[in-house]
Amino acid sequence: MELVVALAIGVMTGSGLWLLLRPRTFQLIAGLSLLSYAVNLFIFATGGLRVGAAPILAKGETGDLARHADPLPQALVLTAIVIAFATTALLLVVLLAARGLTGTDHVDGREREPS
């Protein structure tokens, strides 16, 4: 299972970086989103997954990290998802405004000349 998660993180990171290097702004935003998903998956995977464990402590029981998942990575990922959603919405508004002002969606503001 660890291999599948590591491969998924690697493929999403590679695809996100490839999209970041594209000349169009929508591809740049998609690359940033894909990269943030990869980072969220990485942070979530560092917390570990406990199958069949109780999510909360029973009455009179003491906490033991060997039997329960670490809640900190889960809280970090939840916060990162909210921030990434807001950032993506802001970038899409800026993309639409820049496209309306320049008439193109290239990062540098002009179309490539045919060679």
Automatic annotation (TrEMBL):
UniProt keywords, alphabetically: Cell membrane, Membrane, Transmembrane, Transmembrane helix
Organism classification: Bacteria, Pseudomonadati, Pseudomonadota, Alphaproteobacteria, Rhodobacterales
Keyword Nucleus: no
One cellular-component annotation, GO: plasma membrane
Topology in membrane: Multi-pass membrane protein
Gene3D superfamilies: 1.10.287.3510
Family as reported in the entry's similarity comment: Belongs to the CPA3 antiporters (TC 2.A.63) subunit C family.
Protein name stated in the entry: Multisubunit potassium/proton antiporter, PhaC subunit
Compartments where located: Cell membrane
Transmembrane intervals: 6-22, 34-56, 76-98
Keyword check for Transmembrane helix: yes
